[in-house]
TrEMBL record:
Pathway: Porphyrin-containing compound metabolism; protoporphyrin-IX biosynthesis; coproporphyrinogen-III from 5-aminolevulinate: step 1/4. The gene is hemB. Mg(2+) binds at E233. It comes from Allosaccharopolyspora coralli. It holds the Pfam family ALAD. 5-aminolevulinate 2 binds at S274, Y313. One of its GO terms (biological process) is protoporphyrinogen IX biosynthetic process. It is an enzyme of class 4 (lyase). Keywords: Heme biosynthesis, Lyase, Magnesium, Metal-binding, Porphyrin biosynthesis. Belongs to the ALAD family. 5-aminolevulinate 1 binds at R206, R217. This is Delta-aminolevulinic acid dehydratase. Its EC number is 4.2.1.24. GO terms for molecular function: porphobilinogen synthase activity; zinc ion binding. SUPFAM superfamilies: Aldolase. The lineage of its organism: Bacteria, Bacillati, Actinomycetota, Actinomycetes, Pseudonocardiales.
Amino acid sequence: MFPSDRPRRLRRTPALRRLVAETSVEPRHLVLPLFVREGASEPTPISSMPGVVQHSRDSLRKAAVEAVSAGVGGLMLFGVPAEHDATGSGAVDPEGVLNLALSDLAAEVGDSTVLMADTCLDEFTDHGHCGLLDADGAIDNDRTVQVYGEMAVAQATAGAHVISPSGMMDGQVGVIRESLDATGFADTAILAYSAKYSSAFYGPFREAVDSQLQGDRKTYQQDPANGREAVREADLDLAEGADMVMVKPALSYLDVLRGVAEQSDVPVAAYQVSGEYAMIEAAVERGWLERERTVLESLTSIRRAGADLILTYWAADAARWLGAEQR
Ligand code: PBG
């Protein structure tokens, strides 16, 4: 008898395949990143991310309601301010666009979803860096984390359930935890962007937030050559009080994701970033890839590598496809 081993037996029918699938993607695993632009009366398309827009405060509320009713697990909000300055003061201002939009969403969808806020200065500074600069133009880590602490309190006050520091400054999680605890927000959670790489795949995001960046972020974001460092960063964030940790980007860093997931005793997130979205959308536009199959395969791979939750610009679409699949 040849062959004696026949793994194909379990692939024979859809029902068998469904029975033995190790990994699944459910709408609740998906978090939708959303952009809100100060002063906009209409949504503005982002050309390098077809289908994604900078929302007005009104269109943001509608998009949030739609995503929540599609079943997504949460929303991650980014602000695009009208004015930028050296210290990113719009980030801590309760009347700043991100904080106003958070209160809009807290009122509109509130506890029916998980409201997350990007806690970083790059969208708000005129130099586009994630931190404050010293007199020589270098990042001032320790002054920056104090501002992150203030920003986190402003976001929690506006109604964010989860604070998401993405600036890769040393000690950022600890300072944010202290600031929240000292102001009555001991129950506000922190999702730490622990292993965030200095990646070319953030290209389209620069357009999404009208980034002013000159130069690069290599003195604070991780070198793509390093894997072990990601585990160290995650350990430090956990010691400082992170409730969840994140690896970003996703597809080119699945090994890193696996490494962090193996070490972590808290939920692990992965961020399928703007460039990952743009690549697939561009190929779909040319008729070279099938959107739904390709997206769901990429999400399944990210889950298989160890992600509990996934931030993805397809969150609402994928939640709808998955919902239809189940019926
Ligand atoms: C920083 C931040 C960035 C992204 C999320 N948070 C940009 C960067 O670090 O350069 C990128 C997300 C994406 O590319 O989809 N606030």
